[in-house]
Design a protein that fits this description.
487 residues; alpha+beta; 5-stranded mixed beta sheet; 22 strands; globular; Neutral/alkaline non-lysosomal ceramidase N-terminal domain-containing protein; NEUT/ALK_ceramidase_N
Length: 487
């Protein structure tokens, strides 16, 4: 049922869609394998020398959780992929909306952001395997929508509980190298990090395990440029570990991971590191999951059972309240910094691309190809940013908030927010449990650095279109929304 008061309160905040419905919570879960074919373009690193994926180390999948009641539903899709373009993500949401008959604002796409999946852009500095990208991307919306339909069709009365844990598999990755002070992607033990693990447990009313949701901030770059195999990185192992322990199907919602990465791997040998990290985090998720009691039981003493020792007998009152589930989706405008002109960026990219192609034709040495590859990738990044954001003062991003109970809110924004942004929102949120994610829905993936990071420089600030004040604006706007929804 629509809440007119909420409508009025948010009408001054920008474009939005708002749904509220009172229901006995229902939940359904489904998965689908989205592993691409071997040989597909596998180009997510500038330092790599390979072009095609040579094999599959661990399959990719999409997991869909459907929540709601008889009249409306929410769909959350956890997708093992680096990101989708605006066009492909929009088409995926629309296909889910059409198939299960819900508003697109009630559809949440969450990308795990693995860097060991397929290339997901039709134009890339990668040549070999690019002919397989288009058919793969064309198939994804239907595969994911099918899983969403299955999840909605399987919904049954359920209960939910929330909790938090602690895991130290992440570390700040903005490392100032000692030889010249240059800010690079490494490991900075003194930098900001978020060790909190957010966990949701869903059970059927009969007490059977249904779903587990894990929320954690850590860039899935354990497996680096020396790897030519497809893998979901550590999030895939988190799911495996949780499912083996609990019997519940697990979703992983990537957090605010813009400036945090794994404590092992990255540049080299990450193929041997991501499973141990995933098991560590997954074990903590499972521990928290087992500690939660969605039945909300209140124990009371009723009598004594005489035995060898007198034994107290207890009964439980179970609280199964109706829940007012709220979905808020609205746009906020983020400021854009000064950018290179599109024509200049395009010409630079074409020069680097042609040089890289020539080296490959000449079968040049690996060092020459590596150097040319990362230059072509950086030039392509500059071209994409200038093409989409050049000449603009602001750019809209979608904020989506799902309120599952009086103490649980699930927040998603697009792009790659820094960990400080996620921590600030969680700390200021009026909800006892706030799960915050970047890498969501349908805006171009771009870093959203803090003002301090802009002063320091480095990779993330070089490739972002957003101005230094953008991160603080996100915190202020999202916290204001959460306070309004709580009230």
């Amino acid at each position: 049922m629509t809440n007119e008061t909420a409508y009025e309160m948010f009408s001054s905040c920008g474009m939005y869609k708002h749904t509220e419905f009172m229901t006995q919570l229902r939940a359904g879960i489904a998965t689908v394998d989205i592993t691409p074919p071997v040989g597909i373009a596998h180009g997510n690193w500038g330092a790599q020398t390979h072009e095609r994926a040579a094999g599959v180390d661990l399959s990719l999948r999409t997991t869909v959780l459907a929540l709601g009641g008889d009249s409306d539903s929410i769909v959350i899709a956890d997708i093992d992929i680096g990101n989708l373009t605006y066009k492909d993500a929009k088409r995926t949401r629309e296909e889910i909306s059409r198939l299960v008959d819900i508003p697109t604002s009630n559809v949440r796409l969450s990308f795990s952001h693995t860097h060991s999946g397929p290339t997901t852009r039709r134009e890339s500095w990668i040549d070999e395997g690019s002919e397989m990208v288009e058919p793969y991307l064309e198939s994804l919306p239907h595969l994911i929508a099918g899983a969403a339909w299955e999840a909605v069709e399987s919904m049954e009365p359920a209960r939910v509980a929330a909790g938090t844990g602690h895991s130290e598999i992440a570390i700040n990755r903005r490392f100032q190298r000692p030889e010249d002070g240059r800010m690079i992607v490494g490991r900075n033990p003194d930098g900001p990090v978020d060790y909190e693990v957010g966990v949701l447990r869903f059970d059927t009313v009969a007490g059977e395990p249904l779903a587990a949701v894990a929320n954690y901030a850590c860039h899935p770059i354990t497996v680096g440029p020396d790897n030519d195999l497809i893998t979901p990185d550590y999030p895939g192992v988190v799911r495996q570990t949780v499912e083996e322990s609990t019997g519940a199907t697990c979703l992983f919602l990537q957090g605010a991971a813009g400036d945090v990465g794994p404590i092992h791997g990255v540049a080299k040998n990450g193929i041997d590191e991501y499973r141990p990290l995933g098991r560590r985090l997954g074990s903590e998720v499972a521990r928290v999951w087992w500690s939660l009691d969605p039945r909300g039981r209140e124990e009371r003493y009723v009598e004594t059972l005489e035995s060898g020792a007198p034994l107290a007998v207890y009964e439980y009152d179970e609280n199964v309240p109706n829940r007012s589930i709220i979905v808020l989706s609205r746009e906020i405008e983020l400021p854009i910094r000064d950018l290179m002109s599109f024509n200049e960026a395009k010409d630079r990219y074409e020069d680097h691309r042609k040089h890289l192609q020539q080296l490959r034709k000449e079968d040049a040495d690996n060092e020459s190809i590596t150097n040319a590859t990362f230059r072509a990738k950086r030039a392509k990044q500059d071209e994409k940013i200038a093409g989409q954001f050049g000449g603009k003062e602001t750019h809209p991003i979608e904020v989506q908030i799902i309120v599952l109970s009086p103490n649980v809110a699930v927040v998603g924004i697009p792009g790659e927010p820094f960990v400080e942004t996620g921590k600030a929102i969680k700390q200021k949120s009026p909800f006892e449990y706030t799960l915050f994610s970047g890498y969501s829905n349908v805006s171009r993936v771009a870093y959203i650095p803090t003002a301090k990071a802009h002063e320091e420089g480095g990779y993330e600030t070089r490739v972002t279109p957003f101005a230094p004040e953008a991160a603080d604006k996100i915190v202020d706007e999202v916290v204001a929304d959460l306070e309004t929804l709580q009230n």
